[in-house]
Amino acid sequence: MAEAAAGHHGRNTVLAAGCVLWRHPRDGHGGPEICLVHRPKYDDWSHPKGKLKRAEDTLAGALREVYEETGHHCVPGARLGTVSYLAQGRPKRVSYWAAEATDGAFTPSDEVDRIVWLAPAAARDRLTQPRDRILVDALLDALHTS
After folding, report:
1. How confident is the model at residue 7 (pLDDT cuts 50, 70, 90)?
2. Taking all residues of the chain, what is their mean pLDDT, rounded to a whole number?
3. How do residues 50-83 score in pLDDT, each as one tens digit?
4. CA dist., res. 19 & res. 59, Å (int)
5. Which of 67, 83, 89, 111 is the most exposed place for a label (fewest CB within 10 A)?
6. How far apart are CA 98 and CA 135, in angstroms?
7. Would the pLDDT of 139 be above 80?
8. Do 23 and 32 meet the contact criterion of CB atoms below 8 Å apart?
């Protein structure tokens, strides 16, 4: 996946990481289910992601954010690319990986009050930002499904 926007680099850039968290369907039929998080502060649906801590490895930060926001452990897979955009007037770069959920349980918090597991088409429709929708396609490409 190519970067969604170019030119957002430099000292003022907010670095973040996240995952397109997925699992095999509970009933064993059909394609993957994708986890989306609801953030009440923004009233939006997105993939789990967050800012990196100082000197934190990008993949380690992505896995930490998935656990903090969803309560799920996961196994990282293919790197899905980087999405760049302006957030509150500052450039932001978010690196994403595919990640298969292994175990865990969601607990609501002030940051994330709900999660949902959806089929890819429903996940695309639920995502608030169009830039997040291309990550669903990148995941499906990485899993070699359609």
Report:
1. very low
2. 92
3. 999 999 999 999 999 999 999 999 999 999 999 9
4. 9
5. 89
6. 9
7. yes
8. yes
136 in Cβ contact with 56 (< 8 Å): no
Q: Is 27 strand, coil or helix?
A: coil
Q: What is the DSSP letter of 89?
A: T
Residue 42 is classified by DSSP as T
> Which CATH number does 14-143 carry?
3.90.79.10
Instruction: Specify the pLDDT at position 64.
Output: 98
25 vs 47: CA distance, rounded Å? 18
- Separation of alpha carbons 113 and 65, rounded Å: 15
């760049």: which residue's tokens?
84
CA-to-CA separations, 109 to 18, 25, 37, 69, 102, in angstroms, rounded: 18, 25, 11, 8, 21
